[in-house]
Structure to design on (291 residues):
């Protein structure tokens, strides 16, 4: 980049408006919402993504593993048709509310002096600092977290509720006096999204985790699919301060992707999906006497 040239922020895109959380601070970039991709004519969707890429230079699309498959297939089709290595598709193994929080953190960082490759790969780093879970009215259809037979049996009892952490380490307890979940060992904020379940347990968990504060947001449409029930209150604790997020990302060693040449952090380039080549161990010297 030439001196004095204005840097265009990398676009952080989501696949529905409910995954575009309100700005965390005045520097948070707006989300690019690629809604209804599977309903639009292919040429319209192609034009939309092409225009976004040309406007911002690079696009990171963040979506959950509960995003409908037709939408995901359309994204891969569009990326292939555009033959673009400037579009990254990132699907972390987080519940939908956690994915929305992560997308907002990337939108915060998009205002900083981070290259597209570093910003995209920062998503994998920041997942380690999210604690995502839910209070559920039933675990009968929960397949994202290991559920024992006893919990399955209890889920059929009227009034039963379960508290689950899906990330970073699976946890499950029956909601009862004294029940709790292990939380972060650092200061966080907590975001709540209430579905069709009346429960204040998650707010009490925030107190137990000593969060700086609680905020609420509408439940993402993909959450009932991910959790196997609409009777839930989803929660996610997260780092909110941009300076802390920036320090975390910039403290990690950067490398160049051996395939596309982008600066990245971690062991995978989100744009081309290349991992470092496996290095064969050095061959033992041939000690045979030359003929």
């Amino acid at each position: 980049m030439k001196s004095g040239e204005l840097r265009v922020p990398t676009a952080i895109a989501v696949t529905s408006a409910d995954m575009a959380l309100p700005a965390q601070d005045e520097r948070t970039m707006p989300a690019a919402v690629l809604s209804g991709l599977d309903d639009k004519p292919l040429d319209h969707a192609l034009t939309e993504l092409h225009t976004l890429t040309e406007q911002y230079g690079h696009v990171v699309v963040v979506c959950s593993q509960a995003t409908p498959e037709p939408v995901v297939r359309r994204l891969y089709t569009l990326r292939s048709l555009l033959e673009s290595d400037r579009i990254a598709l990132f699907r972390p193994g987080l519940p939908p509310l956690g994915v929305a929080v992560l997308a907002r953190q990337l939108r915060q960082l998009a205002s900083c002096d981070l290259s597209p490759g570093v910003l995209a790969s920062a998503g994998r780093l920041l997942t380690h600092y999210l604690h995502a879970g839910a209070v559920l009215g039933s675990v009968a259809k929960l397949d994202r977290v290991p559920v024992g037979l006893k919990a399955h049996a209890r889920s059929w009892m009227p009034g039963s509720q379960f508290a689950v952490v899906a990330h970073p380490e699976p946890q499950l307890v029956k909601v009862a006096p004294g029940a709790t979940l292990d939380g972060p060992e650092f200061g966080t904020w907590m975001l709540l999204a209430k579905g069709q379940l009346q429960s204040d347990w998650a707010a009490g968990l925030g107190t137990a985790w000593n969060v700086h504060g609680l905020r609420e947001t509408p439940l993402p449409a993909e959450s009932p699919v991910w959790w196997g029930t609409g009777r839930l209150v989803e929660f996610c604790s997260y780092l909110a301060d941009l300076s802390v997020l920036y320090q975390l990302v910039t403290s990690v060693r950067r490398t160049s992707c051996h395939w596309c040449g982008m600066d990245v952090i971690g062991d995978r380039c989100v744009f081309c999906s290349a991992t470092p080549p496996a290095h064969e161990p050095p061959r033992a010297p041939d000690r045979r006497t030359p003929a």
Notes: Residues 1-6, 278-291 have pLDDT under 50 and may be disordered. The radius of gyration is 22 Å.
